[in-house]
Amino acid sequence: MAEILSQQEIDALLSAINNGELQASDVNIKEEKVKVYDFKRAMRYSKEQLRSITRIHENFIRMLTSFLSAQLRTYVHIEIDLVEQVTYHEFIASLPSKTILNLFEVKPMDGKMVLEINPIVAYAMLERLLGGQGDPSARDGSLTEIETVLLQKVLRRSFDLYQNAWKNIENLNVKWEAMESNPQFIQIASSNDTVIVIALRVTIGETTDRMTICLPHQIVEPVLPKLSSQQWFSYTMKTNVPQQDKLQQNLDNVRVPVIAELGRATLPVYDLVNLQIGDVIGIETDKLQVKVGQFTRFIGNPGVQKGHYAVQVDHVINTEGEDL
Questions:
Q1: pLDDT tens digits, 300-317
Q2: Are 105 and 223 in the same domain?
Q3: pLDDT digits (tens, 9 = 90+) for 253-289
Q4: CATH number, domain at 86?
Q5: 123 & 164 share domain
Q6: Are residues 179 and 301 in the same domain?
Q7: Are 287 and 148 within one domain?
Q8: SS3 labels along the chain
Q9: Considering the domain boundaries, does residue 42 fall inside one?
Q10: 281 and 217, same domain (yes or no)
């Protein structure tokens, strides 16, 4: 505990300094560290909460990379450049005067978020969607109506994935609302409100530039208690199913057609066109072939089970074409 001087000791110390008996440099003064705080730019989110936001968006860009690679049929790589909290005014001021801004409505928060796409990235995507090589250098102008519709379609499907990235934290409903080219026409928060900015570096073929996601405080505030490390760990443990179990679950849910073939018969065309109700067609075998998909997998006998037609399996065909 620091020593507290009495008033007499303080007076004696000041007198000694004034008389030259003691130098000020000889007095050991403990300096207090002062942290500058800007009340106009309040830091609302802790480092822990920002790390959780980063993890959510890392999941999102993994899914988005796979989706865009399949859609554009070319090399796509996306990585997070930075995640930080700034004022909304600073976010708008950092955008180029001409860009592609997409406004999304987020439920149940009743707020809006913004996705900013550099035109170079948008042109590269559209070039690939329209059958080109993905070179945006030949483009210099606004989007046509057809290009706008194509880009909207891709973004709507992309943000279905964004909902999936958040599902362990909150069930979001993200709906594309509007597209704008001038940042001044997009107002999702007041100038001094804190927003979270997630800058993404996107590579499509030979083209590399940025996309930016802006989340206002109105959207993030309701889920802040769920963004702690402890909460995130509990969500991860609940959803951390081993890969083998996931594959098994997916296979169990696959539907395949199963057909029991009664038999085959050969008829002249004359007899076929003259068939009448009640006619009997003789088949070549009394055994039923049970097909799974297009392949015969079982041999059985016809029967009835609880009032329904059924097949009793006699043999299992393990190898396609095996004679039993």
A1: 888 888 888 888 888 888
A2: yes
A3: 778 888 888 777 888 888 888 888 888 888 777 788 8
A4: 3.40.1550.10
A5: yes
A6: no
A7: no
A8: CCCCCCHHHHHHHHHHHHCCCCCHHHCCCCCCCCCCCCCCCCCCCCHHHHHHHHHHHHHHHHHHHHHHHHHHCCCEEEEEEEEEEEEHHHHHHHCCCCCEEEEEEEECCCEEEEEEECHHHHHHHHHHHCCCCCCHHHCCCCCCHHHHHHHHHHHHHHHHHHHHHHCCCCCCEEEEEEEECCHHHCCCCCCCCEEEEEEEEEEECCEEEEEEEEEEHHHHHHHHHHHCHHHHHHHHHHHCCCHHHHHHHHHHCCCCCEEEECCCCCCCHHHHHCCCCCCCCCCCCCCEEEEECCEEEEEEEEEEECCEEEEEEEEECCCCCCCC
A9: no
A10: no
Is the pTM here over 0.90, yes or no? no
The per-residue pLDDT for 324 is: 43
d(CA 146, CA 156): 16
**Residue 290 sits in which domain range?**
258-316
Domain tally for the chain? 2
Q: Is 107 part of any domain? A: yes
